[in-house]
Amino acid sequence: xxxxxxxxxxxxxxxxxxxxxxxxxxxxxAISLLTTLIVLPxxxxxxxxxxxxxxxxxxxxxxxxxxLFNDDLRIFLLAxxxxxxxxxxxxxxxxxxxxxxxxxxxxIIIQTGARYEYRPLHPGEAAIVKVILGxxxxxxxxxSKVVLTAxxxxxxxxxxxxxxxxxxxxxxxxxxxxGEFDLLFQVPDGEVKRRVVVKNKVAxxxxxxxxxxxxNSFFHPGEPFLPESTTIESIEVKYPPMKVSVFGWNIHWxxxxxxxxxAFGFLLMRPFNVRI
Amino acid sequence: xxRREFLKTSAILGLGCSFLPAGCWFNTRPQxxxxxxxxxxxxxxxxxxxxxxxxxxLPNFSRLAKKGSMRSVATSMPPQSPVAWSSFIVGAxxxxxxxxxxxxxxxxxxxxxxxxxxxxPPGKTLDLGNWKIPFSRGQTENLRKGKPFWEYLADKDIPxxxxxxxxxxxxxxxxxxxxxxxxTPDLRGGYGSxxxxxxxxxxxxxxxxxxxxxxxxxxxxxLHTYLPGPAxxxxxxxxxxxIPIEIWRDHHHPLVRVVVQDKEFLLQQGEWTGWIQLSxxxxxxxxxxxxxxxxxxxxxxxxxxxxVSPINIDPSDPALPVVTSENYGEELVRNVGYFYxxxxxxxxxxxxxxxxxxxxxxxxxxxxxHERRMLLDYELKRFEREDTGMLFFYFSSLDxxxxxxxxTIDPYHPLYDEELHRKYGHTLKELYIVMDQTLGExxxxxxxxxxxxxxxxxxxxxxxxxxxxxxxxxxxFKNGYLGLSDIxxxxxxxxxxxxxxxxxxAYSVGxxxxxLNLKGRERYGTVxxxxxxxxxxRIRRDLLNLVDVTTGKKAVSRVLIVPEQERRLNAHAPDLxxxxxxxxxxxxxxxxxxxxxxxxxxxxxxxxxxHCVDPNLVPAILYTNKRVTKENPNLxxxxxxxxxxxxxxxxxxxxxxSLYSV
Lengths: 276, 662
Fold this sequence. Notes:
The complex is a heterodimer. Chain A is of the alpha+beta class. Helix content of chain A is about 45%, strand content about 20%. In chain A, the strands form three sheets. In chain A, strands 1, 3, 4, 5, 8 and 9 form a six-stranded antiparallel sheet that branches. Chain A has a three-stranded antiparallel sheet with strand order 2-6-7, with no helix packed on it. The model of chain A has no long low-confidence stretch (mean pLDDT about 90). By secondary structure, chain B is an alpha+beta fold. Chain B is globular. Chain B starts with a helix and ends in a 17-residue tail after the last helix. The interface of A and B includes residues 128, 161, 162, 171 and 172 of A.
């Protein structure tokens, strides 16, 4: 999975690279267009286009029936029943392509989210770092001791705050200049490094760093995994959420992505000769 | 011409104008290239400024004075900020703008109110269970009368920005960009109400004013509490809206983690957060009110204490008209960040009540100055892009900090001591230097030799010590002008609760005002109009003879009888205005109708400097880059000068004359 992630990261890094310094709307626009360009032809070939056409025509026909025979209750109700029936048939035709395309779309969303969910720290900005250790029962007093040091470019502003019997630890780290820097966590069973990104542009980030596992690695592609042997269960750098401002409104990137993808879909439906 | 044709024609003509910018009369920007900048520095004192200039500490003020003029300027009577700034705003005396004191009273109900603005809830509501659904919006009203100078400028399409002008809440204008100043409430409806969470409430006064004390207790490492916000007027009895706060404390380090809504902070003892935006739900999930505040961790072990600044109205999503447009508020927040919107940002009450120490208060004071300088820098850059225009920008720091730190430079003040002087005696000097540096930034960005630029730095009044406080109501009682029902417990009663109105000829509300208990005007009036003149003369004479037996000094320097014609124009105008002598002022209790055993007593509040005295003792100051030729300038002349610079002939109500051409 790590290798797949590395490949995906490489591909998406290359794709997003030209947009890193631009307003997020450009990168989101580009990935929405790419998604549309991938989805439309695939959808055309794996969906039953004739069936979709037939179901849509039937729905329109029965809608007209409702309009024309609204004084005849029997026909009116029958038409309503048929509209519902062909809607379900239409959804049935959608199910297969949806099941097939969900994986590439998920990959696109996760990779896009790794860039647009959070933004890197800006120089002078601070973030909270949270570490969760393994369950209390498995930890000795010595085992719960974590020492954090920050590489040049980062400044550790506070000592650790320990709660939950020392299982949760918090620090505040300040970014001093642009770059990618390391936080080094020394635990009795070894050392763990975690990267902190300080930039004034878009970058691939994961707030959480976890131990391996198919699900974790799929959802958190921005950071490598914690070693299985370490007592640390997760390290979280609380990056600021990215605000994508469109005409003065702060809109979540996922909304922009879906709106733009749908818009491109409707625009390119005819050139690609696709029925949705 | 239909709408489509009109738009088409307009677009074509507009396009044509953009190609022919020099000659197109559709671009009706004013021909004048005049630019006027006015820096308003509240409370900048003539005597201190001259002293620091002579020591070479204010090189930028000296440079400006050398290029143009530096003059003492007659302030208003009384020299209170809302009165003085209102005089500047309309270029006329209180008879025109109607503001006579911080506090006025309604003669029909005798209830005191803030003189400059009124915020009232919606009139009619529909009761639905626990909810009150309003049929209309609540009203905010600026009580100042007269035409403000920026309206003349707006009439001529001169780009104008008025930043934090006092006595200008609510600020409403389609053309002028404004942020309201002194008189702007915080989100809880007060004028700066802090919240103090503490595990040691016994360390603070029971009757603390200026904020709320909330006792808290940790359960293990965790504390759960609520931050009180605005009153929910959509609910019956308008309960406070609260938002939960969770705090975790480290066992060993002086360090806490604070979680409020979706924000999380790790703070050490002695650390402040920046501005935090909070959302107070009024009708979930449909309607909320946005506020901003700062947190400060005073102590962690053994006692935990956290100060929360007054919750300011969010300028980017304002619940009340603190900015002229939401877009302008958003623009400022986007480019500079959140900023204090409450009238006076300095938390003087927190210092007086011991909630903030001297060092903590000064930390906050410098944060405020830094924030204001950032905003000024942004406004100057925007102003630079205009061909013509007017920028007014206001600083409150010198005024508020002079109020609080005069005790450190006045050896005769009851709170003065050598140690205090050694530690904080330089505070005011340093603040004057910071103001000089601020002016330096303005001078860097503007050429004071440019004949089209008029740069003025003005204050509204100077400063004087406030050593002894005089309870005017007690003085009126002891001199037979006011009757009391219970003379044994005169200190324990509420607002005028103890007054026998049938035996009362005069009473005092506010800082400089005395009112006759006039028949037909006051609710319980007894004094017939025919006797009013004589009574006023007697009170005036007796006040001028008031001697502080402890010091042997006269407490009153001047008393003004407000002309009858003026009182007819302004029903809330006082009948007498007291001009206190140096070192004296109305007592804290008397301002809101209270009484004390002694007429004169020591002022033991850290609020140790004041200006509500005889205006001749606290003149304002004016620096200009042009030579002032007018004799005895006053605040109204500055207004007239601004208008004259743009060749505007004001209405007859403007009393001032241009400073340069008379």
